[in-house]
């Protein structure tokens, strides 16, 4: 069944989630934003005031006790914290700045693995993240590694935030934040960001949204 899983991995700001969401819609597959899971745990750690000095000691029981809920709802996972459904809370600068420090913890990755694999058990899933093709769904039939130049990723990230004509300094700062997160994600020991050996590397620097969606859909249709 995991032959019909489509994974999109790659650095921050490469357009993975917007692309993955649209690819899922066109194929009629479910969609899993795996980054949101790491963000939900980060949100809870900050919200509960857990001192960053002890994040490395968190075990399964401690993670269970954080009050994060992961529930399959309408073909995707709905994330909550103590009864509150998490949406915009997951994308604040505070969460974004700390999420890589949480995602490097082996206990966190183990804790989230079963939720991710459960959603892909019956196939027909499009998912994006950093290790979806390498670790979570090594048997996926379609694996894409989305790449784009750092400058272009910074430009798109700012555009997402509503900044249409950023100054050089703003662009520089956005690029530095993306680069720092990529470095953390690529250099960690557990499930580092890298293309799976059997992934198709797709550079989207010069592609528009439609081209990038079509490229992934075409790859997925070769399998289905
Ligand atoms: O994709 P997004 O920017 O929401 O991911 C947030 C962070 O979560 C990444 O920078 C990375 O540290 C972590 N992540 C991960 N493995 C995934 C998805 C996200 O480590 N599969």
TrEMBL record:
<keyword id="KW-0418">Kinase</keyword>
<dbReference type="GO" id="GO:0016301">
    <property type="term" value="F:kinase activity"/>
</dbReference>
<dbReference type="Pfam" id="PF02224">
    <property type="entry name" value="Cytidylate_kin"/>
</dbReference>
<keyword id="KW-0067">ATP-binding</keyword>
<comment type="similarity">
    <text>Belongs to the cytidylate kinase family. Type 1 subfamily.</text>
</comment>
<dbReference type="InterPro" id="IPR027417">
    <property type="entry name" value="P-loop_NTPase"/>
</dbReference>
<dbReference type="InterPro" id="IPR003136">
    <property type="entry name" value="Cytidylate_kin"/>
</dbReference>
<feature type="binding site">
    <location>
        <begin position="10"/>
        <end position="18"/>
    </location>
    <ligand>
        <name>ATP</name>
    </ligand>
</feature>
<keyword id="KW-0547">Nucleotide-binding</keyword>
<keyword id="KW-0808">Transferase</keyword>
<feature type="region of interest" description="Disordered">
    <location>
        <begin position="1"/>
        <end position="17"/>
    </location>
</feature>
<dbReference type="InterPro" id="IPR011994">
    <property type="entry name" value="Cytidylate_kinase_dom"/>
</dbReference>
<feature type="compositionally biased region" description="Basic and acidic residues">
    <location>
        <begin position="177"/>
        <end position="188"/>
    </location>
</feature>
<protein>
    <recommendedName>
        <fullName>Cytidylate kinase</fullName>
        <ecNumber>2.7.4.25</ecNumber>
    </recommendedName>
</protein>
<feature type="region of interest" description="Disordered">
    <location>
        <begin position="177"/>
        <end position="197"/>
    </location>
</feature>
<feature type="domain" description="Cytidylate kinase">
    <location>
        <begin position="6"/>
        <end position="221"/>
    </location>
</feature>
<keyword id="KW-0963">Cytoplasm</keyword>
